[in-house]
Structure formats: structure tokens, C-alpha cells
Amino acid sequence: MSGPRVVVFPSVAELGSTLAQLVSSRAEKALSTGESFSLGLSGGSLVSILSKELPAVLSLDCSRWLIGFCDERLVPFSDPESTYGLYKNQLFEKINIPEDRILAIDPSLPVQECADDYAGKLSKAFNTEQIPVFDMLLLGMGPDGHTCSLFPDHPLLQESQRTVAPISDSPKPPPQRITMTLPTVNAARCVVFVSTGGSKAPVLKQVLEGGEGPALPAALVAPRQGELFWLVDEPAAASLTSQVERPGPGAKL
Q1: Residue 1 within any structural domain of the chain
Q2: pLDDT tens for each residue of 141-177
Q3: Three-state DSSP string of 239-251
Q4: In whole angstroms, how large is the CA radius of gyration of the chain?
Q5: 2 lies in a domain?
Q6: What is the residue range of 174's domain?
Q7: Which of these, 7, 91, 206, 225, could form a disulfide with 51 (CB 3.0-4.6 Å)?
Q8: What is the spatial distance between Cα 104 and Cα 58, in angstroms, rounded to a whole number?
Q9: CATH of the domain at 125
């Protein structure tokens, strides 16, 4: 891959509209050459952005989409912390994606078994014993530079064999989670980070422009043969000195 494309928007609304168009265009591209479009979702602000903007994309047919999750909290789907539960209530009911095309964890299992079970679901869905290759992953970043449930200085950053791993000591509650590993993230054809708000400015600068100490987890995301986008708003980009893109209204990526 070449370097990341850092695209700065005046508002979250304009960012969200462009994100929806980017997802739609990559879906059309994947479906024109294959049987499905595989999309990995993350929680946080992405839930509300996608729930508002994706249904508004005209002629969006999700019947051949395959939805997975980049990470998930080990809580019941009815729990407000459940990423699947949030998307089910806010997005999935608005778009025509078949329920069997949504890959969710089994929250009734212990964390290790849950990770193994989810890895098995990915293997079956992608028909491979190797690393599944998603068409697109949508990621967020915490103020500590974590992404998925991969946290700074955590041993999981060194994981090279598993596609999905359990974590029982998340520094951010809830402690038990399931997460894609870096090899899975970096196998994707397109990875899109969404980062908004002034609180993200210092860590965004460190991730994109470097700094002292070990690289933060978000800085380790570098798709081997794919695209990498950072879609950010002006407050998040306030500390950046490197070159960025500022597209005009209605521009497509």
C-alpha cells in the first residue's frame, strides 16, 4: 500500500455523508467482481454515523453484504455495551440485509470459547482456513490510540497466528472482549478510520506523524495490499502538520 489518505471535513455530517458514499462505492466494486461485499464494523460514534447516513444512500442493496465485527464486548445483546445490539436496533432494521449474513459472537460462551467460535464463523463464511480478507473494515480510535480491542503495550499487539483473539483484561470496561488481530485487520482490501473531536487531536498527530515511545495500536494498521483512509473532522485534525485532503462539498473518494 501507499501511505494513508487523510481527509479532513468541516463537520461530522459531511464526513458521514462521504463515508456512506465510500462504503457504497466499495460495495458496488466488490459485488461487480464477486458474490458478496464483506464489511467489518466497529462501535462508538460509527454506530450513529452509519445509522443516519447509510440508509440515505440511494439504491443501496445490502442483500449480498456480509457483516462482521472488528471487535465486540462480551455482554448480552440487550446490554447497551453490545455493539451488535446497537447496530441491530439502529441500522440493521433499516436496510435489507438478511439476518444470516450478519456474523455475531455467541455471548453465552466463555471468552476464549467465544473467540474460537467467532473465528470459526469467519472461516466458514469466507470458506478459508487462512486469514479472512474483508473488502472493508471501519475502525475507530480511542484517546489512548487503541483500535478494535487492541490496547497500547498489550501482548495481543504481538499476536501473529490467530485471526480473532480474546481479551480478559481490557483497560476500558467491560474487561472481556473479542477482537480481530492485526494480521486480520491488515489483510483487508480497504480500512477506514473515523476520528472526530478535539480530544483526538494529540493522539491523531502521534499516530500519523510519529512520536516518542512504541507505536500506538492505530499506527500499526497498515493494510498489506489495500487502501487506508483516515476520515477526520477539523477539531481532530487541528494539530496535524502533514499533508491532508480537504474535499469540496459532494466530493467522492
Answers
A1: no
A2: 999 999 999 999 999 999 999 999 999 999 999 999 9
A3: CCCCCCECCCCCC
A4: 17
A5: no
A6: 12-136+146-193+212-226
A7: 91
A8: 27
A9: 3.40.50.1360
